[in-house]
Design a protein that fits this description.
The complex is a heterodimer of chains A (255) and B (231).
Chain A: H1 5-15, H2 29-43, H3 47-56, H4 68-83, H5 90-130, H6 132-160, H7 164-171, H8 173-199, H9 208-226, H10 231-249
Helix pairs in contact in A: 1-2, 1-4, 2-3, 2-4, 4-5, 4-6, 5-6, 5-8, 8-9, 9-10
Chain B: H1 2-19, H2 28-38, H3 42-55, H4 70-88, H5 94-104, H6 106-134, H7 138-147, H8 150-177, H9 182-203, H10 209-229
Helix pairs in contact in B: 1-2, 1-4, 1-8, 2-3, 2-4, 3-4, 3-9, 4-5, 4-6, 4-8, 5-8, 5-9, 6-7, 6-8
Classes of the chains: A mainly alpha (255), B mainly alpha (231).
């Protein structure tokens, strides 16, 4: 028996709630069981077998929430075979246990520390240069990529089962992540320049002091943070030093 | 009414941030303008969005590690700056923004503690689910997952408006008592913005990030100045 497209779409919708009840004991266990429930309802008519299947998916699970879509699709792939008597009940669990760690590492490294910060920096620069339409464009573009990948991973997991690993390797996400990080840093630099020009006013005359303050804060701030300074105290210190220096010198950068 | 809307925005952002979707809508760059919009000042929210996004670019939820709660901090700061601007009749200025930042940012740390509370409550939900399954109520068991969205919503909806109120009160009182501070605070805001850009570059942990950041800043400055000089 195979799961209908409509049921798979229902499972995919529910996987957006994967972390709704994230906890330190089972992590995403409750979310995973919630997501896969419509597929198990369709596969197992016998309540005892359905409960048995649901119980096995209530065990520990933790993965990157986007990459988990591949595991969810693959778990349905294996559950179809378990329901047909082609695989033992342990097969979906073994699939989950094998893939959750590696896919979590790939997802964290690509989505959380590269793609999203890259789009965050792009949206920030866009906000400084073009206002809210740039923010909307960046968020929409991020989500086009994110949802396309999430849906593709779910479909590939369902269709290919264990072979989904090949698709993920083909995507070369770690290499792409490194490039996105470097590009994100460049966007932060461009944002610093945009802030300096904005602070300096339209003519960069006597207001240039504000632009110099931005540049100095960016340079010393980067060095301090790279040497392990704590973020929030550094932010307070930057604001305090700027304010006090301007109050003492009476030079607040206004014409 | 404004505080009620702030609570709803903060609650929805808390849900989107971890429990549902995670589509960047609870990041400061989207949330600050939304907060401004809820209070009738989109531009005011947008004015603080970029530096807050860059400041907290590295606030990501990796595995079991809990980052600071940048969404809660953002609503408090953006809400506080907008409310202060409205009370003073100036709109969001660098001075109101920096004072709201100083008062509202600690809420991001408090938010992390709230997140720990939520994790503890969710642990109990998971136990209830196992118990429900033992009693042969499978549908009830898995639906407990959605109950996990309630507590983050409620905590954020309660904390964010309180943080925004504190931030707005501080900004209004300081600027009414000492209007001469407006100029120096303006410089303080720009200094903070410079640091926020550096924080964003540093958080990305790219190879040769320092060199890329320096070259990109200098190149963009030259381009910007060149464009300004062009008639």
């Amino acid at each position: 028996m195979t799961i209908r497209l409509r049921t798979r779409a229902h499972v995919f919708w529910r996987c957006l709630f994967l972390q709704a009840a994230w906890n330190r004991r089972g992590m995403q266990n409750l979310g995973f069981a919630y997501a896969i429930e419509p597929a198990l309802d369709a596969l197992y008519q016998d309540p005892a077998r359905r409960e048995e299947a649901l119980t096995r998916h209530l065990g520990f699970f933790n993965c990157h929430p986007y990459m988990a879509a591949a595991i969810l699709g693959g778990a349905i792939h294996h559950e179809e075979r378990v329901a047909a008597g082609e695989e033992p009940g342990a097969a979906p669990l073994s699939y989950k246990a094998t893939l959750q760690g590696p896919l979590a590492a790939v997802g964290d490294g690509f989505f959380w520390t590269a793609l999203r910060p890259f789009f965050g920096a792009m949206a920030a620069l866009g906000a400084l240069l073009a206002g809210w339409p740039a923010v909307v464009a960046a968020v929409v573009l991020y989500n086009l990529i994110h949802f396309s990948l999430r849906a593709a991973l779910f479909r590939a997991g369902y269709q290919q089962g264990d072979a989904v690993v090949g698709l993920i390797a083909w995507l070369a996400l770690p290499r792409m992540a490194e490039r996105l990080r470097a590009a994100g840093v460049a966007l932060c630099g461009a944002a610093a320049a945009a802030v300096a020009l904005r602070a300096g006013g339209p003519a960069l005359g006597s207001e240039a002091v504000a632009a110099l303050v931005v540049a100095a804060a960016a340079a010393t701030g980067y060095l301090a943070l790279a040497r392990g300074a704590a973020l929030l105290p550094a932010a307070y210190l930057a604001a305090a030093i700027g304010t006090i220096a301007a109050a003492v010198t009476g030079f607040d950068g206004r014409p | 009414m404004g505080y009620l809307l702030l609570g709803i925005v903060a609650g929805l952002a808390a849900v989107e941030r971890k429990g549902f979707l995670q589509a960047m809508l609870s990041r400061p760059i989207a949330l600050a303008p939304l907060t401004g919009l809820a209070l009738g000042d989109l531009a005011g929210g947008l004015a603080v969005a970029a530096p807050l996004e860059l400041l907290w670019l590295g606030a990501v939820n990796l595995g079991a590690a809990l980052p600071i709660n940048e969404a809660l901090g953002t609503v408090a700061i953006a809400g506080g700056a907008v409310l202060a601007g409205q009370a003073l009749g100036t709109g969001v200025t660098p001075a109101t923004a920096v004072l709201a930042l100083l008062a509202g940012a600690p809420l991001a740390l408090l938010g992390r503690r709230a997140d720990r509370l939520v994790e503890g409550a969710n642990e109990r939900l998971a136990l209830f689910a196992e118990e429900a399954l033992r009693r042969h109520h499978p549908h009830a068991a898995v639906r407990l997952n959605l109950a996990g969205l309630a507590m983050p919503f409620a905590l954020a909806a309660a904390l964010a408006p309180a943080g925004a109120w504190v931030a707005a009160e501080l900004a209004v009182r300081v600027l009414r008592a000492a209007p001469a501070l407006d100029g120096p605070l303006r410089i303080g805001w720009w200094a903070f913005c410079g640091l926020a850009c550096a924080a964003g570059a540093q958080a990305l942990r790219a190879r040769r990030a320092g060199a890329i950041f320096g070259v990109a800043t200098a190149a963009a400055l030259l381009i910007g100045l060149g464009l300004r000089a062009t008639p």
